[in-house]
Amino acid sequence: MINTVSNIWAAVGLIIMLGSLFVLAAAIFPAQSWYRRQHDRQAFDLQLHEERLQELQTAYHHQAISTVQYQEQEAELNQQLYTDIKHDNATFKLNNQGRYLLLLSVIIMAFAAVNLYQKLGALEQISAWQAREITRDILSKANDSNELEIELKQALAQTPANAEGWYMLANVQMQNNQFDEALVSFEQAFIYIQQNSALHNNLAGTYAQALFHIDNQFSERVERAINRALDINPNNISALSLQGIKAFETEDYQQAIYYWQQAQEKAGDEEVSALQAGIDRAKRNLADTGVSNEISLNMSIQLAKGLNLQNKTTAKQPVIFVYAKEAGQRAPLLARKIDNISLPMQISLSAKDAIRGKVNLTDYEDLDFGAHISFDGTAIRKSGDFYGELKAIQLSADDSQQINVINLTIDRIAP
After folding, report:
1. What is the Cα 139 distance to its own chain's centre?
2. What are the beta bridge partners of residue 367?
3. Cα 142 to Cα 22, 138, 149, 157, 176, distances in angstroms
4. Based on the number of CB atoms within 10 Å of its own CB, is 102 exposed (0-12), middle (13-18) or buried (19 or more)?
5. Which of 80, 151, 209, 349 is 20 to 30 A (C-alpha) from 30?
């Protein structure tokens, strides 16, 4: 297949070259017939001049014209010959200018064709496709992981702009416990990856999993990798699974269930089974806490375009407060403070987030929701803080006591 594509493009290039040669030949070497016409015309002019001059001399010898008349007519014939030759030379110069104009046009068209092809002709996509085909060919022929690693390295040394090849090499190196080399390969894959592609999504999630496997904890770089994966795709299965593990380790079982159920919606059969095992375990642990039948309010929070946390310079680290209130009331029923802001984010509010006393969410048909980014760390909204609100959202629980996901956008700035 690769050879076929290469042959097609080679044929296209040959046709373009041949066409250009025909045009250039016409520009640089004008047709012989044109030169012949010019020569024949000048020869005709000279012959006509000689015949008229001969007739004039014959008339003078026979004394049909005077000496003065002979001299005047001879000068007139010479002037006419000079005018004709001058006109022929001017015509030649005009065509010569046209030849250079044609040559310049060929150069401009060739440059424009190359420029347009680079922008619109999918040159990068074809190169990437060829690199992927080479990688998959190596994968199908390699006998073991060591041979696969060697052949991938050789191929990538020749064509490094192969994101799939680097991604595959990173996975092989992880299997061979070559963790430092694997991280380098992952970073190379990120350099050449096509943005927002399926491979980009898989790469980001696998990279986060690899870092978690290496660090064996939710370190700062693991958190960054998870957030990176969720920025690329909020439904990234690997990132959501890791978020569920993190929530489970902190005994936030309701939140763990929420993340793992989200991951299940996009997972394959094997992944669904593994996630379900985690969900079942979280439910058993949740039952031991005595709140297994409690409704959970699942929220997906994002920042509106045009609002940027990086542009805010504050003395303190900004935090986000997420809350739910009885419709039309000012005091919140549930609230949670989150120190590490990474938007978009998913959280789960339940009765354990109640501000005062015990709250039974089944007593409420609808609630107001809000999220407030505070730049001084306090819960009171101040000028310049970002916030978003939803009013009178009806609560509808499914069989597992999970409220349908509530999507909240932080889209306003406090005056």
Report:
1. 26
2. 326, 393
3. 49, 6, 9, 18, 15
4. middle
5. 80
Amino acid letter for position 116: L
Which residues are CB-contacts of 362 (< 8 A; sequence separation ≥ 6)?
Answer: 295
Please state the φ and ψ torsions of residue 75, each to the nearest 5 degrees: -65, -35
Handedness of CA 354, 356, 357, 362 (dihedral sign): negative
Q: Bridge partners of 298? A: 348
Alpha helix (H) residue ranges in 237-299: 237-249, 253-264, 269-288
Task: Specify the DSSP class assigned to residue 376.
Answer: S
Map residue 325 onto helix, strand or coil: strand
pTM of the model: 0.54
* pLDDT digits 0-9 by tens, 13-53: 566 666 666 656 555 555 454 555 556 666 676 777 777 77
Q: Specify burial of residue 411 (Cβ count, 10 A radius: 0-12, 13-18, 19+).
A: middle
Helix (H, G, I), strand (E, B) or coil at 339: coil
Measured between alpha carbons, how far is 220 from 413 in angstroms, rounded to an integer?
29
DSSP bridge partners of 403: 397
Per DSSP, 384 falls in state T
Write the DSSP assignment of 35-72 as a string of letters: HHHHHHHHHHHHHHHHHHHHHHHHHHHTTSS-HHHHHH
SS3 state at 348: strand
Exposure on the CB side of residue 360, measured as CA atoms within 13 A: 3
- The pair of structure tokens assigned to 91 is 């015509």
- Asked whether 194 and 163 are in contact (CB, 8 A), the reply is yes
Domains of the chain: residue spans and CATH: 2-121 (no CATH), 297-413 (2.60.40)
**Which strand (E) or helix (H) includes residue 346?**
strand 345-349
3-state DSSP assignment of residue 150: helix
Report the Cα 225 to chain-centroid distance in Å.
Answer: 20
Torsion sign across C-alpha atoms 287, 290, 295, 296: negative
**pLDDT tens track for 324-358:** 888 888 888 888 888 878 888 888 887 778 877 67
**Category of 130 on φ-ψ map: left (φ > 0), alpha (ψ -120 to 50) or beta:** alpha
